[in-house]
Write a structure and sequence with these properties.
Length: about 90
């Protein structure tokens, strides 16, 4: 381990605790703004070693398709029921 590894680990964990949605790349940018000369791979290694994970992405909505490659267009029943998902022919 390097001599500054413990201090860098604390510097990585403090913004990760404060900003829960920040991942290692954003924290690398914050550390560089504070004056750290640090590589993104090194921050990722510390990130994984400490057991941190980023937020999961929400999956995209799928289109309602039939076997003949046409799609079913839903009629809205209430506000916010049907979003603007087009049918790519």
């Amino acid at each position: 381990m390097r001599s500054d590894e413990v201090v860098l680990t604390e510097a990585v964990l403090s913004p990760a605790a404060e900003y829960g949605r920040y991942v290692y790349r954003r924290i690398t940018t914050l550390l560089r703004a504070e004056g750290w000369r640090v590589n993104a791979k090194r921050v990722e290694r510390i990130w994984r070693r400490e057991g941190l994970k980023g937020p999961r992405r929400q999956p995209k909505r799928g289109l309602l398709r039939l076997n003949d490659r046409s799609c079913v267009r839903l009629r809205p029943r209430r506000a916010g029921h049907v979003w603007g998902v087009g049918c790519a022919g």
